[in-house]
Write a structure and sequence with these properties.
- The strands form 2 sheets. Strands 1, 2, 4, 6, 8, 9, 11, 12, 14, 15, 17 and 18 form a 12-stranded parallel sheet that branches. The protein has an 8-stranded mixed sheet with strand order 3-5-7-10-13-16-19-20.
- It has 1 helix and 20 strands.
- A hairpin with a 4-residue loop joins strand 19 and strand 20.
- The chain is globular.
- About 10% of the residues lie in helices and about 30% in strands.
- The protein has a single domain, classed as 3 Solenoid (UDP N-Acetylglucosamine Acyltransferase, domain 1).
- The N and C termini lie far apart (about 40 Å).
- By secondary structure, it is mainly beta.
């Protein structure tokens, strides 16, 4: 993977994590066990420290960055959707940040909270635990049902399994000129699309 030292600080990656070879890690980055970091994620620990705790996932094209003296943290089982930007903020345990959302400096997303796709969480804002925040700027609109919380946990577990699958089987290959007869499909894992839970 592209992994860079700066000012004597090298990224730290737990042996049980999976960081895709096309992700970029720079400097003071700390990746815990069971973490999944997807292709094209950019984790720039060249000013502030970046910490990703056990079982969290950082999906494709995410950016993590921060200011000197400030940590940017994703706690245990945090789930960061495709294209999200985290800057000098804290994502508490089991929280989810939706695709293309932006979380600004000194903001905090509470435990088991969800920030909707494309939301903008302004600097210093706190999203309470077990709540849903939507919009730009983000506003807290309601508490989360048990069904939605279970959906979130299931989705994160799917990424934890992807960590194991990637460590075991993902490798470069040459594409086939055509699909094999009876080509297998990935099995469904029982994850319900969030749109099905819209009013829960």
């Amino acid at each position: 993977m592209p992994c860079y030292e700066i000012d004597g600080l090298k990224p730290v990656v737990h042996p049980d994590a999976y960081v895709h070879p096309d992700a970029v890690l720079i400097g003071d980055v700390h990746i815990g066990p069971g973490v999944y970091v997807a292709p094209l994620a950019s984790l720039r620990g060249d000013f502030g420290r970046l910490i990703i705790h056990a079982g969290a996932n950082i999906q494709d094209c995410c950016v993590m960055h921060g200011f000197p003296g400030a940590d940017t943290v994703v706690e245990e089982d945090g789930h960061i959707g495709h294209g999200a930007i985290l800057h000098g903020c804290r994502i508490r345990r089991n929280a989810l940040v939706g695709m293309n959302a932006v979380i600004m400096d000194e903001a905090e997303v509470g435990e088991s909270a969800i920030v909707a796709a494309a939301a903008f969480v302004k600097a210093g804002m706190t999203i309470p635990p077990r709540s849903l925040a939507v919009g730009a700027p983000a506003k807290v609109v309601r508490e989360l049902s048990e069904e939605v919380l279970n959906w979130k946990i299931s989705g994160t577990q799917t990424y934890q399994e992807l960590t194991r699958r990637s460590r075991a089987t993902l490798r470069p290959c040459t594409p086939l000129p055509e699909a094999e007869p009876d080509r297998k499909r990935f099995e469904k894992e029982g994850v319900v699309p969030l749109v099905a839970l819209r009013n829960k």
